[in-house]
Amino acid sequence: MSWGRVLVRVVVGGLFVGHGLQKLKGSFDGPGLAGTEKMMQSLDMEPAKENALAVALAETGAGAAIAAGVATPLAASGLIASMVTAIRKVHGKNGVWNSNGGFEYNLVLISTLVAIASEGPGRASIDAVFGKSRWGGGGGLFALLVGVGSSFAVVEMGKRAAEQKRLVDGGGEV
Fold first, then answer.
1. Quick check: is 174 in a domain?
2. Ordered DSSP codes for the chain
3. Which of 16, 21, 22, 59 is the most buried (most CB within 10 A)?
């Protein structure tokens, strides 16, 4: 199973790196930071510039960490946070199926990341050098709880910042 883990890690981690680079640099026909910032504004994820940079760096860095098998539960938690936020802010209202813009793909990625964090990155990983080729259920639970909790915190902070921005821009009191 170790080489199977490597394959899953490299594919999932690599795709996240690609998504992060789309947001960060405009690679692979992505929007770049300016486009990602506009998306964050439209989703009431204020401060939009900081949230755009955070998601771009998180997907790029944590994707690379998953691919390399380093700090696996922590890396998985960052990517889970991104996917939970995508469900909550974009895809959830469209139902399950990806063909309708739903959250099917995000849910598959979340469950894959929880499995990677639980089962560990395998022997062919940086974590294994430090004796952590397998993290166990605690690693998966950590990744899921920190990821979901981070999403709720970021969305709530964004909502509050957006409300405050509207009041200031509208000339109202804060």
1. no
2. -HHHHHHHHHHHHHHHHHHHHHHHH-GGG--HHHHHHHHHHHTT-SSHHHHHHHHHHHHHHHHHHHHHTSSHHHHHHHHHHHHHHHIIIIIGGG-S-GGGT-SHHHHHHHHHHHHHHHH-S-SSSHHHHTT-S---HHHHHHHHHHHHHHHHHHHHHHHHHHHHHHHHHTT---
3. 16
